[in-house]
Amino acid sequence: MGFRTGIVGLPNVGKSTLFNALTRTAAAQAANFPFCTIEPNVGAVAVPDARLDKLAAIANSKTIVPTQMTFVDIAGLVKGASKGEGLGNQFLANIRECDAISHVLRCFEDGDVTHVENRIDPVADAETIETELMLADLESIDKRRAGLVRKLKGNDKDAVQQDRLLAVAQASLEDGKPARSVAVDAEDARAWKGLQLLTAKPILYVCNVTEDQAATGNQHSAAVQAMAAEQGAAAVVISARIEEEIAQLEPDEQAMFLEELGLQEAGLDRLIKAGHDLLGLMTYFTVGPKEARAWTIEKGTLAPRAAGVIHGDFERGFIRAETISYDDFIRLGGEQACKDAGKMRAEGKGYEVREGDVLHFLFNT
User: What span, in angstroms and rounded, lies between the C-alpha atoms of 40 and 286?
Assistant: First the structure.
């Protein structure tokens, strides 16, 4: 499943530096001038998971394949983007294609790096982008509701549902609240997601601080964290420059470097995990002598759909899922030991896959 998180923010906040570190490449041009990122850069990043290594060691797996998250470095936005200012139209279209937003906020002072508004105020920066997204959503809703008039006259069921949801979103936006603040019933969830409203996407605030504040944060990042808590959103504190340096080091050197800085883990690991949680994702495993692999699914996924992530035939011909919990697999020392101890379960089509399940699917071709 290809989950995409857009890295957004005003120009010169550290988006491209962060992206370079995320993807372990210098594909995105990081430069001190607005709009240096003209086309979105895309990179797939492994989601850190120590459990996978432990499973592979027990099964003597030849290959380890972690699950991945795709990050998109999107051109910087300025005030007026909803009306096409700067690279506004392109920016908004690229966000629409993402499942979530990682909003990078400048929480550092540096006279050598220009701020597009000539000030350091991350909360105000967040409000600037949120306002532009809300204005873009309102314009989109107006056009879409106007386009539904003919179908509504014909009492088209889908059109009635869509117009009702658009009206709810419009009311929220006109009240100054993003679409993600709207409570949506389960029967409307799919149609709501299909609206692709920019402000309906979950958001993670990334506080970019200086190297010496990576472990503690500062007053700017504290303000962002308070704002995130108020919104029910998430926030992480990192130094993009440190992450860029770490990305160039060997694994053993990375650990030493982090220890010297007083950090328990790389900020990127926390960012990736936070993005994973933000999207309501979970992981299950398939383990064998050839390969130990992590698979990403949404929380609440039933076994046949989880099987379909591997291959569509697995879902269509699903018979059952032989299931072992991660804890049992590790504690007892592998699949056969779990079988002998009665810890392997046969689960049917109604089984809701749990975090960390080790699964083997049986299916008809």
Answer: 33
